[in-house]
Write a structure and sequence with these properties.
By secondary structure, this protein is of the alpha+beta class. It has two helices and five strands. It has one domain.
Length: 119
Amino acid sequence: MKKTFTIFFVILFFLSGCTFRVADLTVAGTRNLNLESMKIDYAKVTKNVEGSDSAVMLLGIPLGYPNLEEAIDDGLRKANGNLMSDAVVYWTGISFILFGVNTITVKGDSYNTIEKLQK
């Protein structure tokens, strides 16, 4: 009976994963905005946009690393925005016996800029 429980917990250990919150950002963006010659107003495009970037692991060895900039760009592309507000960054690691996935996910509200010439 003890051997059955031990095997069960070993299998659960190898099929485990976890997610934790990495950062809370007031504003996040990866695109250049000209702040000197333009007055910029923002219009909310979409609420609760989610973008992510993933990398796989094989036998516990990472074959790449997820990129935060790619995750933000993915969310902005989905919503056709220029920046995110109230962005929350999550890291998730899921591991199977031989295979695993690391993912960075960014969730927030997407904004697009409305540019007006200053006089």
